[in-house]
């Protein structure tokens, strides 16, 4: 006989999302300046993220209607593009290295639950998008995944494991499709 999930026993006391005041303040700022269709200037949005503890590089583009759970767990390099309706669900650290691109509607996920436990324990792991990598529209990157340098996660694909550098992945779960060959101008 199998045990059963009992959500009344769920306890994630180990997890510290940050101060309640910071979380409330961020929700208000996010609603007005990030989770909106209004095209607030990128420099202004980057300044707000830095104020809340994010490490943000130069010339970062953040399109309207972007959701970032906890800016204090966000590291963004130089010349990074974040498209409309991206959700950075960063219970753990999310790092977007230089010249990486996260396209429209992509979801970067750092938390999950342990389905093997009757207590449905929270599990978290960081996400790393390395230099020059591209997470295409509506793609999902799961907890603990590294998208290698210049790798591509195709439209609607789901990365459940690390993606090797300079390869294009597609599917659910994402599988190697072909090598990404780069050309200079």
Describe the protein's topology.
Elements: H1 20-33, H2 42-51, E1 55-56, E2 61-62, E3 67-68, E4 74-76, E5 81-82, E6 87-89, E7 94-96, E8 101-102, E9 107-109, E10 111-113, E11 122-124, E12 127-129, E13 134-135, E14 140-141, E15 146-147, E16 152-153, E17 158-159, E18 167-170, E19 175-179
Parallel strand pairs: 1-4, 2-5, 3-6, 4-7, 5-8, 6-9, 7-12, 8-13, 9-14, 12-15, 13-16, 14-17, 16-18
Antiparallel strand pairs: 10-11, 18-19
Give a structural overview.
By secondary structure, the chain is an alpha/beta fold. The protein has one domain (18-177): UDP N-Acetylglucosamine Acyltransferase, domain 1. It is 13% helix and 27% strand. The protein is built from 2 helices and 19 strands. It has a 7-stranded mixed β-sheet. Strand 10 (111-113) and strand 11 (122-124) form a beta hairpin. The longest helix has 14 residues, at 20-33. The radius of gyration is 17 Å and the shape is flat. The mean pLDDT is 97.
Q: Kindly report the spatial arrangement of strands forming the biggest sheet.
A: 2-5-8-13-16-18-19
Instruction: Please state roughly what percent of the residues sit in beta strands, choosing from under 5%, 5-15%, 15-25%, 25-35%, 35-45% or over 45%.
Output: 25-35%
User: Whole-Å distance between the termini?
Assistant: 63 Å
CATH architecture: 3 Solenoid
Rg over C-alpha atoms, rounded to the nearest angstrom: 17 Å
Query: CATH topology, what is it called?
Result: UDP N-Acetylglucosamine Acyltransferase, domain 1
Decide which structural class fits the backbone: alpha/beta
Biggest β-sheet: count, sense, barrel? 7 strands, mixed
Q: Percent helix among the residues?
A: 10-25%
Low-confidence stretches: none
CATH class annotation: Mainly Beta
CATH superfamily: Hexapeptide repeat proteins
By DSSP, the count of extended strands is 19
Provide the succession of SSEs: HHEEEEEEEEEEEEEEEEEEE
The number of distinct helices, counting runs of at least 4 residues, comes to 2
Mean pLDDT: 97
What spatial form do the alpha-carbon principal axes imply?
flat
Taken together, the total number of domains comes to 1
């Amino acid at each position: 006989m199998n045990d059963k999930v009992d959500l009344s026993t769920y306890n994630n006391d180990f997890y510290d999302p940050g101060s309640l005041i910071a979380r409330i303040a961020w929700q208000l700022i996010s609603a007005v300046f990030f989770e909106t269709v209004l095209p607030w200037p990128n420099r202004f949005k980057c300044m707000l993220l830095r104020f809340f503890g994010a490490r943000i590089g130069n010339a970062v583009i953040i399109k309207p209607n972007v959701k970032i759970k906890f800016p204090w767990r966000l590291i963004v390099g130089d010349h990074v593009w974040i498209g409309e309706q991206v959700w950075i669900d960063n219970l753990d650290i999310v790092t977007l290295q230089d010249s990486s691109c996260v396209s429209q509607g992509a979801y970067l996920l750092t938390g999950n639950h342990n389905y093997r436990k009757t207590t449905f324990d929270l599990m978290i792991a960081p996400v790393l998008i390395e230099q020059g990598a591209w997470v295409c529209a509506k793609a999902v990157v799961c907890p603990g995944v590294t998208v290698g340098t210049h790798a591509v996660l195709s439209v609607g694909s789901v990365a459940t494991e690390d993606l090797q550098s300079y390869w294009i992945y597609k599917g659910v779960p994402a599988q190697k499709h072909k090598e990404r060959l780069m050309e200079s101008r």
